[in-house]
Design brief:
The protein is an alpha/beta fold. It contains 10 helices and 11 strands. The structure holds guanine.
Length: about 280
């Protein structure tokens, strides 16, 4: 079997078309959605992500502001900027690109963002609401994965779902969303004893570990849906996922490529969250 490839660019383009209409409607009512992005330091991958987020805002008519700080910036300076953005009515979403330099307490920075503007869904209050099954903002990558599954008409009820990775950004919120969709969820991580034993049981396998090509075809159940969240750069400069695409696509029924799979969906859901936040500010 050769798997169907889930095209994140195509689905993103479709979703962004409808987001563009919603943004235009809000703008006409005098409430253009606005996103502020804060980048501290010179991490090249973060610089690319931030550039792509700002560019995406332009394509759907979301106002964006970018604030860049050098790597040695004292945390108070960034916290002051966050406080100003919290109070700025033009801004409906605030995103601090992670990771932050070592002098920062990441949790302190994330908690400083108003929970009503936390379009990344990383604030403790929003994590708590998601855990309770009553989300305010869903973290963009897991949200994008759920949209991809839903667009394919994949029901998760009673399915065996395996998430590889337990990060706050992907693994944990992904797990909560899969539980909310009534899947039976197993979470694997660096200390899992027999990873392949678990992955081979998965009807839906989500890889979010950050290790190039770590999930190989022999670790995939025949007919499984394989979602690759990893974005890794190989020594030759090419991008690859956490899944060995060539071997896994011969076993899976559906698979996401890297690039062009989950990546574009992450940014699309950031736009969706920002527009949703503007909707709420406009009293919709
Ligand atoms: N770093 C890697 N992924 C993300 C993300 O989704 N949001 C933020 N703010 N930082 C990240």
């Amino acid at each position: 079997m050769t798997a169907k490839i889930l095209d994140g660019n195509a689905l993103s383009a479709k979703l962004r078309e409808s987001l563009r209409h919603r943004a235009a409607e809000l703008t006409a009512q005098g409430c253009q959605p606005g996103l502020a992005v804060i980048l501290v330091g010179e991490n090249p991958a973060s610089q690319v992500y931030v550039r792509n987020k700002i560019k995406a805002c332009e394509t759907v008519g979301v106002h964006s502001e970018k604030y860049e700080f050098p790597a040695d910036t004292p945390p108070e300076k960034v916290l002051k900027k966050i406080a100003a953005l919290n109070a700025d009515p033009k801004i409906h979403g605030i995103l601090v690109q992670l990771p932050l330099p070592p002098q920062f307490d990441e949790d302190e920075v994330l908690e400083a963002i108003s929970a009503e503007k936390d379009v990344d869904g990383f604030h403790a209050e929003n994590v708590g609401l998601l855990a309770q099954g009553n989300p305010r903002f869903i973290s963009c990558t897991p949200y994008g994965v759920m949209e991809m599954l839903s667009a394919e008409g994949i029901s998760l009820r009673g399915k065996e779902a395996v998430v590889v990775g337990r990060s706050n950004i992907v693994g944990k919120p992904m797990t909560l969303l899969l539980i909310a969709a009534s899947a039976t969820v197993t979470v694997c991580h660096s200390q899992t004893r027999d990873l392949a034993f678990h992955t081979r049981r998965a009807d839906v396998l989500v890889a979010a570990v950050g290790k190039p090509k770590m999930i190989t075809g022999d670790m995939v159940k025949p007919g499984a849906v394989v979602i690759d969240v990893g974005i890794n750069r190989l020594p030759d400069g090419k991008l690859c996922g956490d899944v060995d695409f060539e071997s896994a696509k011969e076993v899976a029924s559906l698979i996401t490529p890297v690039p062009g799979g989950v990546g574009p969906m992450t940014i699309t859901m950031l736009l969706a969250n920002t527009i949703e936040s503007a909707d709420r500010a406009a009293g919709k």
